[in-house]
């Protein structure tokens, strides 16, 4: 067997053997070690990742015991660990031909396949390794799982983590954490949440588990539950930076901007923040309509990184609010130079251009925003209003019909479609859209009549509204 059990050595013999090798490195004696001793020393130094010692041992092994299977196997392990995959594979093939029952040979061959992204081939090797693992089966499952996890093959890793956990009889709670993490990375937030909760039942003082649970809730838009989990993480470790920042950003979603600022400031105090975090702090002040303070943070972010798109966009919004639309456009275009795939930036550019009748440029910006994210009804409505304002009512109807397909339960789109159909004297469709909009949100009917005052003259619409009231 190339994998040996070294139980024949006592603790003192372990130490003596290691000391003897240290003496050999310093003085060149003792100059002889038997095969068992060399295999032990190779395993010991491979585990410690002591490259120079391993190379010395391999040279000594070639001199004292050339061609030994166990030594070849450990040389293959060394070559694998240093990224020499082809050479490692050749040696593993030799070892396999001489010793077909070594589970770790198949394990390492599977790992090489994973590194070469040959996952089907890796699966076959891993199956052989599992079949031969014997008493080491739980460790084998775990090693395969972590290998696949590192290669972002999360769904495959889950199966092996589950097998390891089952075999452990639930004695290894860290496997629950691994399962939760893999489910999170594979996008199954429900399962991930369940496993994080199970892990936290066993280990309630894990700040990272509370943080990851909070992130799951945040991703599912359960922002209050996310905040509770962030707070638990900070109770365990008050200066845990991921949770400090996570709290700040989550509170932005809860529209608790004052408290978000508290956490942003705490993060800035504890860390060396990137420019985008400083800009996010500015955004919180912007939401509170504290424009001067917001501007200070945006400018501070740009001092740190002149390419900070969040800061340029924030300044663009401030200039828009001031009615300085050309300056707004300049800032937003600068933001887009550095972050071209943000639909919010394109939308901000569109409405700024719309304000100063840059219709062609506004239309291009609206199109780009919707190409990137068609699920914001406000963009569709404003784009359609641009077409409507230039007399192209049919195009406005076409746009909002498409927008309605992406945002089916949005009353505002349906109210607009009702107005546009009235404008082209299509009363049937106008009544249909108005009726649907009323069902979804009767309160928004006031906005409908403000946008299209002529609608008050249509008795059918007034009757529908009266019946709704």
Q: Which SSEs are present, and which pair or pack?
A:
Blueprint: H1 11-27, H2 35-47, H3 51-64, H4 69-81, H5 85-98, H6 103-115, H7 119-131, H8 137-150, H9 154-168, H10 174-185, H11 189-202, H12 207-219, H13 223-236, H14 241-253, H15 257-270, H16 275-287, H17 291-304, H18 309-321, H19 325-338, H20 343-355, H21 359-372, H22 377-389, H23 393-406, H24 411-423, H25 427-440, H26 445-451, H27 459-468
Helix pairs in contact: 2-3, 2-4, 4-5, 5-6, 6-7, 7-8, 8-9, 9-10, 10-11, 11-12, 12-13, 12-14, 13-14, 14-15, 15-16, 16-17, 16-18, 17-18, 18-19, 19-20, 20-21, 20-22, 21-22, 22-23, 22-24, 23-24, 24-25, 25-27
Summarize the structure.
The chain is mostly helical. It has helices spanning 11-27, 35-47, 51-64, 69-81, 85-98, 103-115, 119-131, 137-150, 154-168, 174-185, 189-202, 207-219, 223-236, 241-253, 257-270, 275-287, 291-304, 309-321, 325-338, 343-355, 359-372, 377-389, 393-406, 411-423, 427-440, 445-451, 459-468.
């Amino acid at each position: 067997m190339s994998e040996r059990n070294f139980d024949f050595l006592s603790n003192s013999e372990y130490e003596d053997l290691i000391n003897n090798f240290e003496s050999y490195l310093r003085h060149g004696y003792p100059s002889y070690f038997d095969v068992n001793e060399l295999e032990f020393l190779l395993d010991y130094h491979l585990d410690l990742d002591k490259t120079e010692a391993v190379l010395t041992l391999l040279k000594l092994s070639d001199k004292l015991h050339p061609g030994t299977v166990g030594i070849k196997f450990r040389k293959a392990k060394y070559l694998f660990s240093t990224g020499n995959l082809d050479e490692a594979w050749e040696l593993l093939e030799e070892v396999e031909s001489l010793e077909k029952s070594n589970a770790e040979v198949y394990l390492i061959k599977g790992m090489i396949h994973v590194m070469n992204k040959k996952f089907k081939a890796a699966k076959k090797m891993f199956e052989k390794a599992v079949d031969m693992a014997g008493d080491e089966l739980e460790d084998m499952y775990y090693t395969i799982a972590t290998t696949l996890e590192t290669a972002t093959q999360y769904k495959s890793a889950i199966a092996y983590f589950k097998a390891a956990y089952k075999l452990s009889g639930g004695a290894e709670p860290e496997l629950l954490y691994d399962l939760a993490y893999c489910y999170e990375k594979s996008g199954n937030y429900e399962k991930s949440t369940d496993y994080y909760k199970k892990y936290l039942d066993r280990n309630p003082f894990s700040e990272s588990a509370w943080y990851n649970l909070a992130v799951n809730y945040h991703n599912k838009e359960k922002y209050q539950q996310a905040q509770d989990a962030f707070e638990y993480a900070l109770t365990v470790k008050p200066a845990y930076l991921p949770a400090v920042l996570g709290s700040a950003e989550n509170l932005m979603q809860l529209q608790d901007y004052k408290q978000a600022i508290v956490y942003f400031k705490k993060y800035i105090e504890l860390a060396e923040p990137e420019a985008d975090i400083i800009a996010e702090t500015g955004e919180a002040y912007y939401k509170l309509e504290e424009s001067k303070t917001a501007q200070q943070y945006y400018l501070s972010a740009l001092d740190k990184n002149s390419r900070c798109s969040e800061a340029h966009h924030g300044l663009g919004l401030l200039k828009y609010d001031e009615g300085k639309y050309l300056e707004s456009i300049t800032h937003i275009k600068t933001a887009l130079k550095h972050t071209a795939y943000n639909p919010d930036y394109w939308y901000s550019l569109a409405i700024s251009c719309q304000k100063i009748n840059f219709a062609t440029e506004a239309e291009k910006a609206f199109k780009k925003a919707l190409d990137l994210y068609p699920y914001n009804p406000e963009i569709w409505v404003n784009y359609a209003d641009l077409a409507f304002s230039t007399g192209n009512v049919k195009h406005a109807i076409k746009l909002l019909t498409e927008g309605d397909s992406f945002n089916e339960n949005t009353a505002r789109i349906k109210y607009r479609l009702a107005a546009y159909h009235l404008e082209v004297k299509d009363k049937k469709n106008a009544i249909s859209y108005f009726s649907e909009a009323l069902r979804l949100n009767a309160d928004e009917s006031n906005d409908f009549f403000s946008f299209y005052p002529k609608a008050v003259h249509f008795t059918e619409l007034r009757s529908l509204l009266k019946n709704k009231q």
